[in-house]
Amino acid sequence: RRYPPGPKWLPIVGNFLEFRRRLSEIGYHHLVWKEFSEEYGDVVGLKMGRNLVVAVFGAEAVKEVLTREEFDGRPDGFFFRLRTFGKRLGIVFSDGQFWQKQRKFSMQHLRNFGFGRKEMEEKIEEETKDLIAVFKKQCSEPIWMHTAFDVSVLNVLWAMMAGERFNINDERLRKLLKIVHDAFRLTDMSGGMLNQLPFLRFIAPETCGYNQLVDVLVRMWEFLQETISEHRKTLCSSHARDLIDAFLQKMDIQSDSSFTDDQLMSLCLDLFMAGSETTSNTLGFSVVYMLQFPEVQKKVQDEMDEVVGRNRWPTLQDRIKLKYTEAVLMEIQRRANIPPLGIAHRATRDVSLFDYRIPEGTIVLTSLYSVHMDHKFWKDPLAFRPERFLNKEGNLEVDEKYFAPFGYGKRRCLGESLAKANYFLFFTALLHNFYLEKDCDGPEPQLEGYDGVTISPKPFRAKLIPRTD
Ligand code: HEM
User: What integer pLDDT is reported at residue 203 of this predicted model?
Assistant: First the structure.
């Protein structure tokens, strides 16, 4: 068995230069990979600097990788360790027993603090009320919408993690979230230039993104350190107020050496980053789609008026009846492909995949984009057509093999229930309260966003017209 097909490797850099050349023409990492798949098939093998990188395409191959234990590893290397003090820590880029333990701990304690339960919904409702009130105050002018949900979305997670919330206009947090957005645009899922050719940080620290990345990390560490120190000072051994407290208590019992100061910081960093960026971008794009497809916006509002009425706001209990609205939310996720390549996996031993041999340590990328844009299954994948998720009777019909915005398998998104609840409640609250219209004096809202680990909406404003009827 042989390594998957791909372009010829050059000494030292492998396919690095060819990838960069294509990227400068095409503009998006996932579309460069798509081009490779058109030339070489559903399993493509490259060498990027020192890393072997295999990418898989189509529902069959993606599901195969995401459900096989031997692909449950995460990449290692300079870029991935930079975030976590040169060690393999955190939850997103750790693996093996360490990851299993940390994932279980985080899930269990987030649940204790409301995650996936009624308390979470109540918390989201509070945040939606607050955000809508801010919009109502500001809506005489068009409002910048691409990052409008950032703080509110983070507040829901932060309540469970750190027991606090931020004012929607909190300047420091807004700045922090802005640099997190920028950081997501600096690199790509294979670890980017810094992982492939780490010596570049000495020769071209600016161009390879090293300086900017370190700047983001230092600011994040400072912010998290303050929060953790505050918790340490006021910790009570018999009562945990939030996830940080629960972690500190576990550290104090000293029953498990994987619970350390560095790990607490890394865990917070991972949850902060994974939890804020993806959901805010999805909500940002949902506004773009509603501006570009006003007829869909109207149908959502009509459905909500009929099912929920005008006397109260939609709740999670209404979801089951708001079928068209749910179909719209799914279609936005399918079409916008916020994490187009999911999160990189790693082969934990030599494995065979279909007819190919994948050596231990190979980084494996799963093109969720290719699943959502599969021509055979979706027929017209580029079209924005929420009805594709509804059957003849008007009921939701989803084939999970072809719709996997949160991935599958053991490394499936840990925040899925929170993300879905946030997405539904913020979106419906916005459309319940306002008609959304384009701001003709501002930049046109773009369906295609900025490239990066996650695709993010380009800046745009919208006119929010209160629905008074
Ligand atoms: C719409 C919003 C979101 C989307 C589309 C999304 C999508 C994903 C995807 C595709 C993965 C990778 C699965 C894989 O490795 O194969 C992932 C992993 C992850 N997500 Fe999310 N996510 C979202 C929101 C959240 C939120 C709110 C949190 C916060 C709690 C979160 C935390 C994580 C974590 C910690 C992982 C890594 C899990 C692991 O490696 O075991 N995500 N997410």
Answer: 85
- Residues in binding site for heme: 413
Give the number of the atom of ligand 1 that is nearest the alpha carbon of residue 418: 27
H, E, C per residue of 170-218: CHHHHHHHHHHHHHHHHCCCCCHHHHHCCCHHHHCCCCCCHHHHHHHHH
How far away, in angstroms, is 419 Cα from ligand 1 center? 9
Question: Is the shortest distance between the CB of 412 and ligand 1 below 6 Å?
Answer: yes
Q: How far is the CA of 161 from the centre of ligand 1 (A)?
A: 16
Starting at the edge strand that comes first in sequence, how are the strands of the sheet with 51-56 ordered?
A: 43-48, 51-56, 363-366, 345-346
Long-range CB pairs of 451-454 (<8 Å, 24+ gap) are 451/27, 451/28, 451/29, 451/185, 451/188, 452/184, 452/185, 452/186, 452/187, 452/188, 453/184, 453/185, 453/187, 453/188, 453/189, 453/339, 454/184, 454/277, 454/278, 454/281, 454/338, 454/339
pLDDT of 173-217, one tens digit each?
888 888 788 777 776 666 777 777 788 888 888 887 788 888 888
Quick one: which of 115, 82, 47 has its CA closest to 418?
A: 115
Cβ-contact 405, 368 below 8 angstroms: yes
pLDDT single digits (tens) 309-347: 999 999 999 999 999 999 999 999 999 999 999 999 999
More confident residue, 137 or 200: 137
Kindly state if the Cβ of 275 falls inside 6 Å of ligand 1: yes
Q: Is the CB of 274 under 6 A from ligand 1?
A: yes
Q: How confident is the model at residue 114 (pLDDT cuts 50, 70, 90)?
A: confident
Q: What spacing in Å lies between the alpha carbon of 393 and ligand 1's midpoint?
A: 32
* Minimum CA distance residue for ligand 1 atom 42: 415
Task: Report yes or no on whether pTM surpasses 0.90.
Answer: yes
How far does residue 107's CA lie from ligand 1's centre (Å)?
13
pLDDT tens digits, one per residue of 140-178: 999 999 999 999 999 999 999 999 899 988 888 888 888
Q: Is 339 in the pocket of ligand 1 (CB under 6 A)?
A: yes
Using the mean position of ligand 1's atoms as its centre, give its distance from the Cα of residue 427 in Å. Answer: 19
Give the closest residue (by CA) to ligand 1 atom 18: 413
**What are the CB-based long-range contacts (under 8 Å, 24+) for 94-99?**
95/346, 95/348, 96/348, 98/258, 99/74
